[in-house]
Write a structure and sequence with these properties.
Helix content: under 10%
Shape: elongated
Number of domains: 2
Strand order of the largest sheet: 3-2-1-8
CATH superfamily of the largest domain: Glycosyl hydrolase domain, family 43
Distance between the termini: 38 Å
Number of strands: 28
CATH class of the largest domain: Mainly Beta
Number of helices: 5
Largest sheet: 4 strands, antiparallel
CATH topology of the largest domain: Tachylectin-2, Chain A
Radius of gyration: 26 Å
Oligomer: single chain
Length: 487
């Protein structure tokens, strides 16, 4: 074996100059052939050619059952004039190829493959965080045995331009997703009984480090064609929170006159300056007005273990009570008072302590709904900048506690939705769900890295996202069938 990442930590080779990024040459998950991936930080990699073969002849070999790639090692020539790739195939054959630019490769018939046996370890003292086993290489389709090479900016740019120029040959186009153009994230979804329309309320994305300040609303009569209703709330008009406009949620509450519904109010819970506020409107598309002039919930006031973000509002159909959930690396909840802008005293409590988020695969983005008498708690695992941001869930018999059949409820084993590198879909998380009126047809509304550019942005992909919708189905026992994110 030339070089395996399975059982060791890997350090990148270098030619002595400070690296701009890293080339990961590896066996691809698409098939047993050589693939390339790159990252500027040595952690957040993305495929070149969408994970397809760098060497077209290996596809022919694979299809003809003439052997598949078992390992691959790329390095600079000793005179730093070009590059060498040593490939080991499953039959034990080793082939040496050379390249002047890391793009075009030719078999070097006069080279001895055994002279390029890879060392067990490459050292790069400038990048101590680059020591990653292959199982944790994110953003790569089926990372397998391979090697890392430190590359400079010119090399990085050259490879990216080459890959982008051939992208149409390797990447299937978007078809149904995203559901509307633009950079948005953290969607909330609503069907309004007042208007008979569907609504999506997202975070406005695309701002560095999420320094955004306005909220939009999108409406649809058919759940396919969406109209931007414009800005429904602008934090710059608030007295207490001017930025970090994140992750809203909304609920439609009927107003009664006697026993009859005379109208509706819309309560919109939103994040500003990492605290939760509440705004009110008479229509689902707003305009919304700040109801309190100060946060409903702030970390300082409630002494929470972390920032107070990602609210979710839910009405229990069994009792008619309204609840608010929130948290980031912890999950708290409380019952809402009848005015919907205050909490019922002594109802605030903890569902997931910060010390147990690993056990629950929890980080943020809670969403709660009820179906057939069961309560589904959904949330996102991993940070939103991770390509492996995904939706997890738990089923409970109660909206205020994790209990199932008299025992503590446990997180279901299979995620609801997660990345699909074969489609170059990454960062699928922070969801809402919506049920079609008078039916048991459900859909998950979520965001992903903007495709295909988001995965190439490294950490910046976490604030360059887009809104998607896919059907969500249930098994007979009530568990959710894994959703395969669609194009």
């Amino acid at each position: 074996m030339l070089f395996s990442l399975t059982s060791m930590y890997v350090m990148a080779q270098n030619d002595g100059q400070k690296p701009y990024g890293y080339l990961y040459a590896h066996v691809s998950g698409h098939g047993h052939w050589t693939a390339f991936a790159m990252a500027t930080d040595g952690i957040h990699f993305h495929d070149l050619l969408c994970g397809d073969a760098v060497l077209p002849e290996e596809v022919t070999m694979h299809n003809a059952n003439r052997g598949t790639v078992h390992d691959v090692y790329v390095c600079r020539r000793h005179d730093v004039n070009g590059y060498v790739m040593v490939t080991e195939y499953e039959d034990g054959t080793r082939v040496v190829r050379t390249s002047p630019d890391l793009v075009g490769w030719e078999i070097a018939v006069d080279e001895d493959p055994d002279s390029y046996m890879a060392p067990s370890e490459f050292r790069e003292s400038d990048v101590p965080g680059m020591f990653k086993p292959r199982q944790t290489v994110e953003g790569v389709h089926g990372p397998g045995p391979g090697s890392f090479l430190c590359i400079n900016e010119e090399e990085y740019t050259r490879l990216q331009v080459w890959s982008d120029s051939m992208e149409s040959e390797h990447l299937a186009p978007n078809v149904l997703n995203p559901v509307f153009p633009g950079l948005y994230a953290d969607p909330e979804a609503l069907y309004s009984r007042k208007t008979g329309k569907f609504y999506i309320y997202p975070t406005t994305d695309g701002s560095y480090q999420w320094h955004n300040y306005d909220f939009h609303c999108f409406s649809s009569e058919d759940f396919r064609t969406w109209t931007d209703e414009g800005v429904i709330l602008d934090l710059r008009n608030l007295d207490w929170g001017k930025e970090y406009a994140w992750a809203p949620c909304i609920i439609e509450k009927p107003v009664y006159k006697g026993q009859k519904i005379s109208g509706y109010k819309y309560y919109y819970y939103f994040v500003a300056n990492k605290s939760v506020g509440v705004a009110v409107a008479d229509n689902p598309e707003g305009p919304f007005n700040d109801a309190l002039g100060h946060p409903l919930l702030s970390q300082q006031d409630i002494k929470s273990p972390n920032q107070v973000i990602d609210p979710d509002v839910f009405q229990d159909p069994k009792t008619g009570k309204y609840y608010l959930y929130w948290g980031n690396s912890y999950l708290w909840m409380a019952e809402l008072a009848d005015d919907m802008v205050s909490l019922v005293p002594d109802t605030m409590h903890e569902l997931i302590p910060r010390s147990r988020i690993g056990e629950y695969h929890y980080l943020e983005g809670t969403y709660v709904f009820e179906r057939n008498g069961l309560y589904y708690f959904m949330w996102s695992e991993n940070i939103t900048r991770s390509p492996n941001y995904k939706v997890r869930y738990l089923i409970s018999d109660s909206p205020t506690d994790f209990i199932r059949n008299g025992k503590p409820a446990e997180v279901e084993e299979l995620p609801v939705i997660e990345l699909d590198p074969s489609k170059q879909i990454f960062g699928t998380g922070h969801n809402a769900v919506i049920r079609m009126p008078d039916s048991d047809d459900w859909f998950i509304v979520y965001h992903r890295f903007t495709r295909p550019e988001g995965i190439k942005m490294g950490l910046s992909g976490g604030y360059n996202r887009e809104i998607c919708i896919d059907p969500m189905e249930f098994n007979p026992d009530g568990t959710i069938k894994p959703v395969h994110p669609s194009l």
